[in-house]
Fold this protein.
Amino acid sequence: MIRFISPQALKRQLSDGCEIALLDTREHGQYGEGHPFYSAHLPYSRLELDAHRLMPNKAVRIVLFGQNNALANLAASRLTSLGYQDVAILEGGVDGWAAAGYALFKGVHVPSKAFGEFVELQYGTPHVSAQQLKTWFDTKQPVVVLDGRPKSEFRKMSIPGAVCCPNAELAYRIHALVADEETPIVVNCAGRTRSIIGAQSLINMGIANPVYALENGTQGWYLNDFQLGHGSAAHYPDVGQRDSAALAARRVAAKALVKKHEVGSVSSSQVGDWLSDKTRTTYLFDVRTPEEFAASVVPGIVHAEGGQLLQGTDLYVGVRNARIVLYDTDGVRAPLVASWLAQLGFETHLLDAGDVSPKGYAGGNERPAVPALEEIAPERLLALVRDGSVRILDLRPSQEYRQAHLADACWSTRSRIANDVGREPGLVVLVDNEPGRAALAAGELAASGAAQVLHARADIEQWEAIGLQVITTPDFPPDEECIDFLFFVHDRHDGNKEAARQYLAWETDLLDQMDEQEKATYRLIN
C-alpha cells in the first residue's frame, strides 16, 4: 500500500539523519520552475531508466511528488513494481509544500549552487571583475585564465585566451599550466559557482600564486560587452612521469585536506561489503576525466567527472545521508573532490587506487530490462504516412521537435501520451533516439486500443532524402507546453542579457531563500 506523507512530516524526516530520497517526477522544465531544496529529479518519462542509478538500494525511504498527486501516484506504482519497498507520496505535491509555507527553489542543482555562494562567503574567495581582467589583458599583464567547465561547455563560449581545465583537474595539472608562483590565476565558468569552487580549490591546495574567481564568469564578460570566443580547443595538458615531483607536493596537500575534513579511507573489500549492504546506500565514483575512465573501466565504478559531481551532485546522488566513495589513480583529484563533498554534508571516503579489485564490484541495482519496441525502417514509415494509416508521436525533447520533425507528428511525452494518442489509434509510431524512453511511453498505451506500437529513430537527413516531409515549428509546441525545457537557464546563452542578469541574481539570492535547516546541510571549515 502506497502511503501519503504531509509536508510537515516530510520536513521533519529531511533532518532526522536517516537516508531519504525526495524525488520530483515532473519533467525538467517543471522541476526547474520550483521544487523543495533537497529534491533530486527523476522524471516519469525516464523513471525506470534512472531509478537504479539514483537509488541503488531498494530498501531506501522514498518520497515522490509532482504538481499534485496524480503523476506521483503513477510513478509510485512503477517504483513498487521494480521492488522498491518504502515509497510514499508528498500530499498535495509542490502545491501542498508551498501551501504549508515551505520554499520552492527555481533552477537546477540548487544545493550545489547555493554551496558555491556559501563557500565564497565563508572562505572570502578572492574575485576579479570582467573589467579588471580586460584591463590586465589590454596592458599585457601576465595572467593565466583557466576555465573550470568540461570541454563541451568550453567550446561553446570562452574567455579569449582561456584554457579549459575542469575544476577537479586544476590542482592535478596546475604545475603544467603556470610556470611560476607569481603569475595571477583566474578561474572562470559560465556564471559563479564553478569559478568560486575552482579558485578556492587551488587556494585550499596551497597554490602560491594569487588566485581569483572571475566574477559572473562568461556571462559577466558578455554583460560588459566584451567579446567571447567560440569553438576553442585549448585544454589541459597530459600528466606524465616528469611531473612526479610536483604531484608529490600536491598529494601532501591533498592528504592534509582530507584529514581536515574528516574524509575516511576504505579498503576494496569494505567497499564490496558496503555495495551489497541492503540497509545503507553507497555510491562508488571515478572522478577522473572521461578519457581516462574509458581507458580503464572497473566494473561497478560509475564515472562522475569530479568538477561536475560537485556542480550537480543531485544528478548522481539521489539519496540524502548516503555514503560516497571516490576513486582516482593519482591521489590528488579524489581527495580534493572528497574534501568538498564532506563540506556539502556527505559521508565521504576514498578508495586507494592500489587496492582496487580488478574484477570490479557487485551490488546495487542493475537497470531493469525494458521490453524493446520493433523498429520501423524509414521506407516503411513513408509508405504508412502516404497511406494515412499511422499515428506519429515525437518523444524527443521539445526543442529538438521545434527544430525539425515530421509534418504528421505531434509532440508528446510519457505523462501525456495516453491522452495525446486518443482512442483506437490503430498503428502508432513513436519517434525517439532513446529506444528505452520510447518503450516506457509505449507502456502507457495499453488501454488505448492501439493495434501496434513501433519505434522510429529521428534521422532528419534520411527522412528528407526519401521524401518524408520535415517541417520546423519555432513556436510550437508553445512555451507553456514545453514542460521539459527550462527557458530562463538557456536564454542567457542566446544573447539575452536580461536572462543572464536574472540568472546571476538567482544564484546570489539562493542563500536568502534557505531556512536554517537547509543551511545546516553544509559543514564548511575555514
Q: What stands out?
A: DSSP finds 25 helices and 21 strands in the chain. The chain has a mean pLDDT of 95. The CA atoms of residues 190 and 218 lie 5 Å apart. The two ends are 47 Å apart (CA to CA).
